[in-house]
Amino acid sequence: MTAPADDSDLLRLSSRGDRGAFERFMDRHLGAVHRFLLSLGADADDAEDALQESFVAAWRSAGDFRGAASARSWLFTIARNALRRQHRRRVGEPTALESLESLGGHAGWGSTAAFDGAFEAREELRWALRQLPAEEGEVVVLRDLEGFSGNETAEALGLSLAAVKSRLHRGRLRLMSLLREDEVSDA
Amino acid sequence: MPDLDRRIAGLRCRDVLEVLGDYVDGDLEEETVQRVEAHLRACDHCEKFGGEYGALVAGLRQALLADEPRPGLRDRMIRRMTAVWREEEA
Predict the structure, then answer these.
(1) Which residues of A touch B14 (CB under 8 A)?
(2) ipTM computed for the complex
């Protein structure tokens, strides 16, 4: 029995024309990349178009993967750029910087009302993620939903680790604020 | 809103808010962790908010991973790749 190939092996084999290896690579990451694209605000059709474009690009450039970065960081960079071409105004659009204190206040710091941090339905979370500024949403999705490390996220998005941490914290606070508002409006 | 400049265990509440993400992610140095935890034990507002923040982060990971992919997604992806491979052969 052979050990399962890692992503780097699969990409190396793909670059030599091994379609089976590329299918395995695709099966590993298809769902996560699709979720990532949807979370960045793409509708179902646009997300699927960007997904297809991403894997076609990954197949064609598999030989360019050098292994210094993680393969999934490399793939998510491709996916982000694919969506960016479709949604130039959404991804990477800078937003006015709200103070951390203000974000914390909206998120419930100092409030006596209880908030359990839970979301009743995944749809509610999906809605809240789509409301986040794209530069915060993509960091929250990679770090908290997909389990990327800080360094992997920084690689995938072309950011410094400090920028990843800052955007993650601000995104989480904004998410709390949105879910809290939603909870109140449902009450 | 309570006073963000209130100082407990050598940290103001606004300092705790600033490092809360790193605290939850385990990215703080041990000395700072101890100061944050001493502050949280003595500050109801930060303790409550920190708990809510931590619960949100813990819940996120499981939230969407169980999502079913769009029906037929993989099949359409394979058809697209097959078309690309045929083009390359042509």
Answers:
(1) 100-101
(2) 0.86
